[in-house]
Write a structure and sequence with these properties.
The protein is mostly helical. The protein has one domain: Orthogonal Bundle (MetI-like fold). Helix content is about 80%, strand content about 0%. Helix 3 packs antiparallel against helix 4 and helix 10 packs antiparallel against helix 11. The protein is globular. It starts with a helix and ends in a 6-residue tail after the last helix.
């Protein structure tokens, strides 16, 4: 674990050194390519005056609402597809096609339907996170070992008990993986929505920095977006997923 940490720190330091060298070479003007120190000062100032804290709070408010809707809707639709052959044949092939559509493509429709505001951004987040959850939940249910189902049926349990006590628990590893991936897709969709939509989130600060020609602010927000995505995935979802996989005897480490 310590070796892994040191390797990651070494990589970050390498990036900073290369960044500083490019700045010293003055390939681009300072206002287009700020130094690491300039970006660090911008980050520090943004947290001191509360700008970044307020923006992160606003972004997470939209993200959590959209993510919750996408998880509920995606899971229910996945269960429906996995449990009904006709529905699976009817709409199953189109789910992957919807998943392949970039989140920002939905934004023009969202703006036309809901105009500028929270609803448009949240709808893009929902569309960004739903389809992956549909795929993982339906896959998890269809991949339940037949021997578990037959063993439960020999005990005389009905279909409702079979689903709640056997099928759903057995598909939890796939559901957790779907939740993790849907979070990543929802986060990306949120940033796409905030870039063009209205509001006070990180995406809007990024656009404001671009419009003002403040590249130090732009890079600062990009680093924040990447860091938040990395931290939430590795220190929340991945750890939770690893615990679930280990509990189900599926840990490959």
């Amino acid at each position: 674990m310590m070796k892994q940490f040191m390797l990651r720190v070494a990589f970050i330091l390498f990036i900073i050194v290369v960044w500083q060298i490019l700045f010293i070479l003055n390939i681009w003007p300072e206002f287009l390519f700020p130094s690491p120190l300039m970006v660090a000062n911008t980050l520090s100032d943004g947290f001191k005056d509360g700008t970044f804290i307020q923006a992160i709070g606003a972004s997470f408010r939209r993200l959590l609402l959209g993510y919750l809707i996408s998880i509920i809707f995606g899971t229910l639709l996945g269960i429906l597809i996995a449990s009904n052959k006709i529905i699976e044949e009817m709409i199953g092939p189109f789910i992957l096609a919807l998943q392949s559509i970039p989140s920002i493509v939905w934004l023009p429709l969202a703006l036309l339907w809901f105009s500028l505001g929270e609803t448009a951004i949240i709808s893009v987040v929902v569309l960004g996170g739903t389809w992956n959850m549909v795929i993982n939940s339906s896959t998890g249910i269809k991949n339940v070992q037949p021997i578990l189902i037959r063993a439960a049926q020999t005990m005389g349990i009905n279909k409702i008990q079979l689903f709640w006590k056997v099928i759903l628990p057995a598909s939890i590893p796939h559901l957790i993986t779907g939740m993790r991936l849907s979070w990543a897709f929802s986060w990306r969709a949120l940033m796409a929505g905030e870039l063009i939509g209205s509001g006070d989130g990180l995406g809007q600060i990024l656009m404001w920095g671009r419009d003002m020609g403040n590249m130090s602010l732009v890079i600062s927000v990009i680093l924040l977006i990447g860091s938040i995505g990395y931290l939430t995935d590795n220190f929340i979802f991945k750890k939770f997923e690893d615990k679930v996989l280990n509990r189900w005897g599926l840990d490959v480490k």
